[in-house]
Every structure is written in structure tokens, then in C-alpha cells.
Amino acid sequence: MASPAKIGIVTISDRASAGIYADEGGPAILDYFSQALTSPWQAITRIIPDERAGIAQTLVELADKEGCCLIVTTGGTGPAPRDVTPEATEDVIDKLMPGFGELMRQVSLAKVPTAILSRQLAGIRGKSLIVNLPGRPRAIAECLDAVMPAIPYCIDLIEGPSLETDPAVIVAFRPGQKPKG
Ligand SMILES: Nc1ncnc2c1ncn2[C@@H]1O[C@H](COP(=O)(O)OP(=O)(O)OP(=O)(O)O)[C@@H](O)[C@H]1O
Ligand SMILES: Nc1nc2c(c(=O)[nH]1)N[C@H]1C(S)=C(S)[C@@H](COP(=O)(O)O)O[C@H]1N2
Predict the structure, then answer these.
(1) Measuring from atom 25 of ligand 1, which residue has the nearest CA?
(2) Which ligand is nearest to the CA of 22?
(3) pTM of the predicted model, to two decimals?
(4) Cα(23) to centroid of ligand 1, in Å?
(5) Atom 15 of ligand 2 has which residue's CA nearest to it?
(6) Which GO-annotated molecular functions does the record name (predicted)?
(7) Which of 22-31, 37-46, 139-148, 172-181 has the lowest mean pLDDT?
(8) Would 115 disulfide with which of 74, 85, 108, 138, CB 3.0-4.6 Å?
(9) Domain range 5-157, CATH architecture
(10) Do residues 138 and 31 lie in contact, with contact meaning Cβ atoms separated by under 8 Å?
(11) Which ligand places an atom closest to the C-alpha of 12?
């Protein structure tokens, strides 16, 4: 049987990483994929501070050493001096995928006018898709609902494992295939 797809979940927060508040972002992402995915998968989680080099190093470790096909970060996408997640992501990706950030900001704007403050982006490193989400835990489902339909096909294209979804939760779109459900 194929080994489970590895998904990296990275909380980037000075306070959550210091234990000043409990991390709600990582568990929200875990919960999202637990509901959305029907194919075998395994989470690899990290909680780290807003430090550019440390974020880049974590992304490289999850992509290259752990072999995560998908890495989702939460936090550090805004304009504050310590918000450096997009810079750290750009440091390690080979290809920028601008549509992800554009779509997530567009759907988020319908919820909150400050969505324009998020510089969240996505990109490809080798066989990993890296997607930034804002830090507010409620932003996680808002953003993932928008981009998740395209993620399994994106991972097919970068020669990763086939992610299957529960169509009652999210319908994965693969061109040339009839949507399941
Ligand atoms: N992992 C998390 N768990 C719970 N709440 C969070 C988390 N990350 C962020 N938040 C909430 O969302 C807000 C905005 O997130 P942002 O990433 O800008 O954090 P911040 O204000 O820079 O502080 P920090 O890095 O210490 O979380 C935070 O002020 C906090 O209320
Ligand atoms: N969907 C969604 N997007 C959102 C938000 C939100 O609540 N929901 N918060 C915004 C706010 S207030 C900020 S400051 C930016 C950056 O957040 P971050 O620094 O926590 O990543 O994300 C924005 N995007």
C-alpha cells in the first residue's frame, strides 16, 4: 500500500511558539484536512517564531527531508515589522503560484476589509506546494475552502501523491475527470 501523503502544518507566531497563548491555527488546519481528505495522510506539525531564517529552514526541512507534498503555514503575512512569512517562503520556492494569494484575498475581502493587509502567497519547492494562510484562526477555513478544489490537481502536476477528498466537504477539480459525488 502507498505510504500516506505527508502534509506540513506550520504555525508561525511569536506568542504561540513561546506558549503565551495556545496555538489554535495548527489544530484548525489539522481539523480541516481531517474532514476534507479521504486518502491516507499524515500531519507533520511545527510551531515556530516569526524569524525569516527559521521559517525558511523549517519549510526546507518539511519539503526536502520529510517529503511533504503540501505545506500550509499560518501567521506572519501582514505588514507588521515581524511579519516575514511571505519573504521566507519566497526564499525557498522555485516557482511562485500567484493565483492562490489572489483568490484567497478576494474571498477574504468579502468577510473582512483588512484582508488586503495579508501578503499571503503560495509556491512550489521541488515536489511540495507551500501555501501561506493568515494568522487569525477563522481565516483558515475561509482561505482553504477557496483554494482546496485546485490543490489535489496541483499536487498531481508536481508528481506528488494523489489526494482524494470527501465531495460532501470539498470537490477536488481535475480537468478531464468527472467530479466525484
Ligand atoms: N496560532 C495562533 N493561535 C491563536 N490565535 C492566533 C494565532 N496566530 C495568530 N492569532 C491571532 O491572530 C492575530 C493576528 O495574527 P498575527 O500573525 O498577525 O500575530 P501577531 O499579532 O504578529 O502575534 P504573534 O506572532 O505573537 O501571534 C493575533 O494577534 C492573535 O490574536
Ligand atoms: N480570511 C481572512 N483573511 C484575513 C483575515 C481574516 O480574519 N480572515 N485577517 C486579516 C488581517 S486583520 C491581517 S492583519 C492580515 C495578516 O494577518 P497575519 O499577519 O496574521 O498573517 O490577514 C488578513 N486576512
Answers:
(1) 13
(2) 1
(3) 0.97
(4) 9
(5) 118
(6) molybdopterin adenylyltransferase activity
(7) 172-181
(8) 108
(9) 3-Layer(aba) Sandwich (3.40)
(10) no
(11) 1
Taken in order 68, 37, 44, 81, the sign of the CA dihedral is positive
What are the tens digits of pLDDT across the range 21-52?
A: 999 999 999 999 999 999 999 999 999 999 99
Cα separation, 123 vs 26, whole angstroms: 20
Q: In angstroms, rounded to a whole number, what is the distance separating the alpha carbons of residues 7 and 81?
A: 29
Tell me the domain boundaries of the chain.
Answer: 5-157
Amino acid (1-letter code) at residue 23: D
Question: Which atom in ligand 1 lies closest to the alpha carbon of residue 25?
Answer: 1
pLDDT at 159 over 90: yes
Calculated CA dihedral for residues 136, 36, 103, 65, nearest 10 degrees: 80
**Contact present, 124 and 95 (Cβ < 8 Å):** yes
Nearest alpha carbon, ligand 1 atom 31: 136
DSSP classification of residue 3: P
